[in-house]
């Protein structure tokens, strides 16, 4: 069986009250406002004059410029001598070479063969 639980909660309920607000009446009031006072001070201003300005002229000025000095070192270079080298020239020389001529002759050489021939020998036997 399901059980039901009841939980009570206290809730504040606002109470409306009527309050009478008094009416504000506007009334004019006179106020003294301080006035701003301007005090002038006399300042002496100098008088401007026109003055002749001298003309600018260009004057040439001598300036020393450093010169670059080149210092050479002398190096001994060996002197090359020219020598005449005999030139080898190859010349063709024609030489007669005796020619050897081989003359072959075919010569028939008889070939000898050795053949073993069985030899028949007869023996006489005497019977007694």
List the helices and strands and how they pair.
Layout: no helix or strand
Question: Can you tell me about this structure?
Answer:
It is a single chain. The chain has 128 residues and is mostly loops. It has no helices and no strands. It is elongated. The N and C termini lie far apart (163 Å). The model has no long low-confidence stretch (mean pLDDT 84).
Tag the structure with descriptive keywords.
single chain, 128 residues, little secondary structure, 0% strand
The largest sheet, given as strand count, sense and whether it forms a barrel, is:
none
Beta fraction: under 5%
Shape: elongated
Mean pLDDT: 84
Task: Give the helix level as a range of percent.
Answer: under 10%
Distance from N terminus to C terminus (CA atoms, Å) equals 163 Å
Low-confidence segments, given as residue ranges, are: none
Query: Mind telling me the C-alpha Rg?
Result: 80 Å
Question: Treating each run of at least 4 consecutive H or I residues as one helix, how many helices?
Answer: 0
How many strands appear in the DSSP assignment?
Answer: 0
Q: Which structural class do you get from the secondary structure elements?
A: little secondary structure
